[in-house]
Design goal:
Elements (H helix, E strand, L loop, with lengths): L1 H18 L1 H4 L1 H8 L5 H21 L11 E2 L10 E9 L4 H11 L5 E4 L1 H6 L1 H9 L3 E4 L11 H19 L5 E2 L10 H7 L3 E3 L3 E2 L10 H11 L4 E6 L6 H16 L3 E2 L2 H10 L3
Parallel strand pairs: 1-6, 2-3, 2-8, 2-9, 3-4, 5-6, 7-8
Helix pairs in contact: 5-11, 10-11
Amino acid sequence: MFHQKLSVSLKFIVITLIAGVSSLGITKLDYLLGVKQSKNESIKATQDKLMAVSLTTNQINQVPNKFHSTVVYQGKLKANEKVIALTFDDGPSPKNTAQVLAILQKHHVKATFFMIGQMVKYFPQVAKQVAADGDVIGNHTWHHSYRHVDVVTAANELNTTADIIYQTTGVKTTLFRPPGGFLNNGLADYAKSQKYTLIMWSEVSGDAERPSPQVSKMVNNVLKNAKPGAIVLMHDGGGNRSRTVQALPQIIDGLKAQGYRFVTIPELLEIQAQEKI
């Protein structure tokens, strides 16, 4: 009699567990029963998560097809479309980029970062944080060289940088900013052949000048030249950018006071594509 009652009880427990599969899910049921996922299942789950993140990050990096293989200096917008794009070159760097990201997060601003391949290799966690924050990443070559290069070298400069950006962050970028803004040294031609959108700028903070201007001068440079669709050039790498970091909150506050809102380069180009000027 005792064994019969025990058998009935066990059957009841098993039936209850099986019935609960649909509400608990296999993973939760496995956990309750002490069943571990196989290594392959665990790897697949991780890959699925990474794929979902990659799809999201690549959506914010896409630009309309009409801008492929073109050179963009600023967005061509209506006078009342007060949007502006902040861009940062030569990172990622462990100190400067982290400080810039913290400021952008605090002020709820998204920006576009043109990264050097070598720097992504040296500081992968910083590059990952840029993508995780929802900012956009562009290609700025591997070595940041200004010299004239042949097609093979140009391909290596852009492709190795594109590869490490993707391997590190999951971002497949089609944005390219030529080092120094040079369009005639072989790099821009190769980028166009690969349907990159070449992003230049319409105004500068002056932080690349030597000697570096004072913070107040940087702020004034941006605020006095602000216009709808402007692309602002700043730097988060390539040297001591402490003055850029100090100027950034003032630039953001000043532009907001002028009625501007901030967009990434893909967002800027999407707005232009939608407008009928």
